[in-house]
Design a protein that fits this description.
Helix content: under 10%
Oligomer: single chain
Mean pLDDT: 91
Number of helices: 0
Largest sheet: 5 strands, antiparallel
Strand content: 35-45%
Number of strands: 8
Number of domains: 1
Structural class: mainly beta
Order of helices and strands: EEEEEEEE
Length: 111
């Protein structure tokens, strides 16, 4: 499977998830996202995309981005996509698995 290209990924500036104040969503946070393609039948995962970010809420009020234009697998091998998140100086982790190769939006729910 190809490596996802996040160069066109973005976010909806009107769609943040949570009031800032609780770690790691504190004023001045820097968050990064990456995508991987996954095939549930073969249990094969692509290389992870480059990191998209760093991003922070320009109003410094909210965390959790409403991601848009999440890449899809052009080869059609992926049955799902995994969304990875990391904060500056923290370990990355999978925060969600989109169970298809069609959906291009995801609301980070800040867990």
């Amino acid at each position: 499977m190809p490596k996802p290209d996040v160069s066109k990924m973005g976010y909806n500036p009107a769609n943040f998830a949570y009031w800032i104040g609780e770690e790691p969503w504190v004023p001045g946070y820097s968050v990064y996202y990456a995508i991987s393609f996954y095939n549930a039948r073969t249990k094969v995962e692509s290389a992870r995309s480059d990191w998209w970010g760093p991003k922070s809420d320009p109003k410094k009020l909210y965390g959790g981005f409403g991601l848009i234009r999440i890449p899809t697998d052009p080869t059609g091998q992926a049955t799902a996509r995994r969304i990875w998140r990391k904060f500056t100086e923290q370990q990355e982790k999978v925060i969600h698995e989109i169970p298809d190769n069609v959906t291009t939006k995801y609301q980070d729910d800040v867990r």
